[in-house]
Amino acid sequence: MQESRGDTVAVAGENESRRPSDRPLVVLLGATGFVGSAVLRELAEQPLRVRAVARGQIPVPRDARAAVAAYRADLTEPGAMAAAVSDADVVIHTVAYIAGSSTWRIDEGDSAAERVNVGLMRDLINVFAGRGADAESPAVVFAGAASQVGPIDKAILDGSETDEPKGEYDRQKLAAERLLLDADAQGILRGCSIRLPTVFGHGPNSTARDKGVIATMVRRALSGEPLTMWHDGTVRRDLLYVEDAARALVAAVSHTAELAGRHWLLGTGRGEPLGEVFRTIAELTAVRVDKPAVPVVSVTPPAHAEAGDFRSIVIDSTAFQRVTGWQPRVPLAEALQRTVNALASQ
């Protein structure tokens, strides 16, 4: 399999010259990211044409059912977005700004983060706005974040809440989502935002590093370090295995007409106490490395802690499930075991 730059496309899977003309072209932005790489693995199993777009080398799954083209580009450069998506039938936007040890801690006024998190959505819309009135409206599936709603005193989120984000990351994600939904309202495209909860996990086919809290704790446990919490362990999180998140985004591709024009929440419907989750990680890791389990301890929160770090989040994704038929498949215990095994073997 060869990679491409510019407009020349190299294909793995079914030969492009023999590809049925009615196969839709799905362009995946951020194909080497943590979520994006899992989406690519899922798309590769579908009867589609897929253009996987990323800055670095793109690992295309072997024996792909889809016709997969690897397309390397820095989307922040002038004209790069138009070259990548102008002929797309569907775009899945999973690009994330990554700096430091996480993707969700952004300083106010960070122009580089804004260029990626908001500017790329603006570029995408401008490309499709220039298609002309006679062109069929493309569909855009955006990987948003459940945290966009901001800190809220509500036991279960269902998508009816008023968005009042506090952190810069959540403000930028919400700004991008609003641009998308405004473009949908104007008829430029058919857009929907799938707000993801805490997504985590590694498996034998994973190709991207997870910088989230679960993977961080697994790595600490493997190194023999204590697992630290900024609270007493009762704070709950809706934890979704990355493969289930990827299946949801791909399921959205088949239901863009029903999903367009609004945001949808994704989750398991369960709030897992982080103290119990961390203790499970410590126990699973201890068995894997044949050493005593590391301690799980509460510590003083750092100065950069945000209000959302201390709020429990449980998500009701019934609305999305009714439209798409999607259901989470991988139980938490199995997902944690897969993650421990995968990281221990690296």
UniProtKB/TrEMBL annotation:
Ranges for domain NAD-dependent epimerase/dehydratase: 26-267
InterPro entries found in the cross-reference section: Epimerase_deHydtase, Lipid_A_modif_metabolic_enz, NAD(P)-bd_dom_sf
One Pfam family in the UniProt entry: Epimerase
Cross-referenced Gene3D superfamilies: NAD(P)-binding Rossmann-like Domain (3.40.50.720)
Protein name according to UniProt: NAD-dependent epimerase/dehydratase
